[in-house]
Fold this sequence. Notes:
Strand order of the largest sheet: 4-3-2-1-10-9-8-7-6-5
Low-confidence stretches: 3-21
Distance between the termini: 28 Å
Number of strands: 10
Order of helices and strands: HHEEEEEEEEEE
Number of helices: 2
Largest sheet: 10 strands, antiparallel
Mean pLDDT: 87
Shape: globular
Helix content: 10-25%
Amino acid sequence: MIRHSTLLLTLASGMFSVSAANASPPDGKLWNGTWHLNAKASKWGAAGKEMSETRIYDFSGGKLSLKSSGKNGKGKDMSLAYSAGCDGKTVPMTGSPNADSVSLTCVSGREIRATSSLKGKTTVKSVATISADGKQLTLKRTYVGMKGAPTEVLVFTR
């Protein structure tokens, strides 16, 4: 359950927090579409390894929406969803037992930072970056609430 919860939290965070005043919005041409986890290329921490994950991003109307589904290391189904602006404002997130909200901040057209929280307490901080060629999404997430604040690096491809 902890691995499942952690994954969902991370998925949510799987996005982003910096000063939005100087940042540009996400590049929809790069973000929009379906991304698949490359578990072998990813580096796992204490939160546990995922078997699979598919993320669907859509940037439109000034908001980045994420719908994620997959299986945790024990084969249990997991899912996560939110739609947020890149303004650092907290919005609801569904599907994660470890987070009920997320805030996003766009650093550039290719990089987004996320902070996920549960009942107002930060649980995961993430940075998602798309490669210059648009073929790889790298998600670095740190579990703020876990002992030693473990960090994982997840790699996704189209």
